[in-house]
């Protein structure tokens, strides 16, 4: 399945792992913060409408 | 304008802060370098131009957070902003005062510290010339950084983070002049580039500093 | 909304509500196509392209390195553009978009630097060399750090937007200056090795330098990264708008209560 990467296998796999990990981290953090902020806004908005 | 310059100079001398401290810092950095890299004079004379440039740059950086902060705290910056003098001239004067009290002493001290680091003989002239041309740019860029962070409580560290990348071109060309001068190579190209950067920053950056200061004074 | 904004359809998206509604509608498209492009491009590049005769299998790193490097620069350009829009037309969405983009730029710069270092180890025999291109990226990274730090440090959102915008403008000039200064300072010991990457980045003569076998998956990855960047910016700008709204609501609550 994995193609023969020759003597540079480590190099290629490490750079793929590092890049993809960084990208996934960025996306996960963005979405986590987005979710948190969204729920918090809804909470605050509801409180505002209740209190007038 | 001249009154403002004189006032800033007088304050700097009386407080003793920027004037003495910058020089002392420059001296200490230079003295520490041989301790960290070893006493071989050939090695020291190779790195001397770069170390002296870096030391001067850091000494300059150290004094930046006092550049506007004192005036900000006692409210005289608000007065200056409402004065008939345009804010652009105010920040230019501030930068000039900073250069006279910090940059110029560094330039004058550099050759003596060069002796400590075994700077090759032809290097002295070029070191002084490059610092003389380069330090005004550092003062002007530093004024911009100080204006950006003036309202912040812990602005000092942030100021370094913002200003150091902006110092890169000046440092590269300035140290290159000193390095080439010390090894007897031609210095014209980096010297012209350095002078160009200094001239451009003096001409343009006060507008950015003044704009930033206006935002902060809002 | 001012009259000028109504006159020009594009400026309608400067209205946060309108921006949120529209971005919510188009975002799924960007997410799906970007991930599809990246996955297909990477799989294609990783499994179905031959090794380079000189670089061996390390040539496969190009599919991550080049798009990331490209986006690291484009991200700064986008921040420059949105900063200008904020300074000139005072649209809040614009300033928030610049803020939202900066961390993406940091990650892209990190990817470019990391893959470059990992690639450089076997190719140049060192993790890091003070090559002009590498050095410029490191400096760009520092600029990003300063920009983000300034955003974080300032309480008042409008002041923060103004100051970071000016910093972005001034920083752009100095970043460009640094690029030339660095070129002058060290005229590229590794020029031979980076010709291929230089050509790939400039794009114009890509097809001559990078052969077609590598070019098509690379193009796919670049498109994927661009789309991913757009998706992330839209999403993160939405987050910033909501965070800003929370702040405004809480402030109003404090005044009323």
Note the main sheet of chain C.
none
Shape by Cα distribution of chain A: rod-shaped
Instruction: Give the percentage of residues in beta strands of chain C.
Output: under 5%
| Oligomer status | heterotrimer
Helical fraction of chain C equals over 70%
Describe the structure.
- The complex is a heterotrimer of chains A (52), B (218) and C (257).
- Chain A has 52 residues and is mostly helical.
- Chain A is built from one helix and no strands.
- Chain A is rod-shaped, with a radius of gyration of 21 Å.
- The model of chain A has no long low-confidence stretch (mean pLDDT 85).
- Chain B has one domain.
- In chain B, α1 packs across α6, α2 runs antiparallel to α3 and α7 runs parallel beside α9.
- The longest helix of chain B has 30 residues.
- Chain B is elongated and about 55 Å long.
- Chain C has 257 residues and is mainly alpha-helical.
- Chain C has a domain of 175 residues.
- In chain C, α4 packs antiparallel against α9.
- Chains in contact: A-C, B-C.
- Chains B and C meet through α8 and α9 of B and α5 and α6 of C.
Compile the SSE list and pairings.
The complex is a heterotrimer of chains A (52), B (218) and C (257).
Chain A: H1 9-51
Chain B: H1 2-15, H2 17-37, H3 41-62, H4 65-73, H5 76-82, H6 87-116, H7 121-148, H8 155-182, H9 188-217
Helix pairs in contact in B: 1-6, 2-3, 2-6, 3-6, 3-7, 3-8, 6-7, 6-9, 7-8, 7-9, 8-9
Chain C: H1 3-7, H2 16-48, H3 62-89, H4 92-124, H5 132-153, H6 157-185, H7 191-202, H8 206-209, H9 212-256
Helix pairs in contact in C: 2-9, 3-4, 3-6, 3-9, 4-5, 4-6, 4-9, 5-6
Keywords:
heterotrimer; A: 52 residues; mainly alpha; 1 helix; C: 257 residues; 82% helix; globular
Quick take:
With 218 residues, chain B is an all-alpha fold. Chain B is 87% helix and 0% strand. In chain C, 82% of the residues lie in helices and 0% in strands.
